[in-house]
TrEMBL record:
PROSITE patterns: DPCK
This protein's record includes keyword Magnesium: no
Alphabetized NCBIfam families for the sequence: dephospho-CoA kinase
Keywords per UniProt: ATP-binding, Nucleotide-binding
Lineage: Eukaryota, Fungi, Dikarya, Ascomycota, Saccharomycotina
GO biological process, one term: coenzyme A biosynthetic process
InterPro entries for the chain: Depp_CoAkinase, P-loop_NTPase
PANTHER family: BIFUNCTIONAL COENZYME A SYNTHASE-RELATED (PTHR10695:SF46), DEPHOSPHO-COA KINASE-RELATED (PTHR10695)
GO MF entry, a single one: ATP binding
UniProt cross-references to CDD domains, sorted A to Z: DPCK
Protein name: Dephospho-CoA kinase CAB5
Domain of life: Eukaryota
Amino acid sequence: MLVIGLTGGIASGKSTVSKRLHDEYNITIIDADKIAREIVQPGLPAYNKIVKYFGNKVNNLVLPDRSLNRPALGAYVFQNKDELKVLNKITHGQVRKEMIWLLFRSWFRMEAMVVLDVPLLFEAGLDLICGTTLCVFCDPKLQLERLMSRNPELSRTECEKRIANQMPTEEKIARSDYSLSNDSTVEALYEEISQVISRVRPTKLTTILQYFPPIGALFALKIVVQRWWEQRSNSSTSKDKQS
């Protein structure tokens, strides 16, 4: 089973790509953002931890229906990187567990491909388990315009901070196997997606072989070692540039 890691900056068009992969190519999508919303439902462990830690810091954190006031929480943590790290620490572990379970479920169904739709793919180290990685990007000015249009409740400054709090787009592109430009029309983006899928789609024989435990284990080990080496090389390159 080919695991495709899909990432991209906020408001870059990642959801459009994800929907296309599901609707046109019938690929299962494991959406990290969706899981993140599900694990903070009232009464669940992550919800309780968030309320306990942020309850006295975020005004009106808990709404009348007991759900979290996500816009208020987001506005608060994106003003403070340390608080954002606390929130990520509370949620990321449980999101990762659910994603791994869904991957196993797809594997048991003998699916040829599955997509991990993760904004923080590289930051969370989840690229280690991906056979290939895709990054959706667009012009920074266009990205800001789209974010402001999508989230009118956010000021321009708040939108700029949310973009700045993510890994730079240039770094995501450099670390990805394929990049998809979303500066033009939806049709142009769809064509780029088609070209990538035609390149990475595993043959039926490859898919069948990967479901034999010894061969599948070798495929998985090859991917992890390759990704680990790429991470190490990227880290060394970054240190050299800094020095």
